[in-house]
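Let us work through a complete example step by step.
Step 1: write down the sequence.
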Amino acid sequence: MNEADQIECVAGRGIRGDRFFDFKADYKGQITFFSLEVFDALRCELDLAAAQPAATRRNVFIRGADLNTLVGREFELQGARFAGVEECRPCYWMNHALGDERAENWLKGRGGLRARVLTDSVLQRDQ
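Step 2: predict the structure and record it as tokens.
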């Protein structure tokens, strides 16, 4: 995973430079979102002080949004438009990435959001 101060979102294609850019037509995971509130709770409840958000392999980390409520809805972030498609279901890989065999189960129902990119835009890291 590479952290970036900005990413270029391309409508219908995904994030330029991402492994899933132009993966296939109408791909439902053109961009993925993860809640930092959920990540903070995960770290606290599983005592994973050293865990980093990048371990989740999600593209964009946000605060202040219930991502599950965006499934099936269009939404906007920094002027960019997205369509929420489905929850990012955690898999066994999360246990290895986060260093705890409880991680996958803990993340069920809170694994993030898969979405389609609806408008060309650049998302900037909040400073």
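Step 3: interpret the result. The chain has a mean pLDDT of 94.
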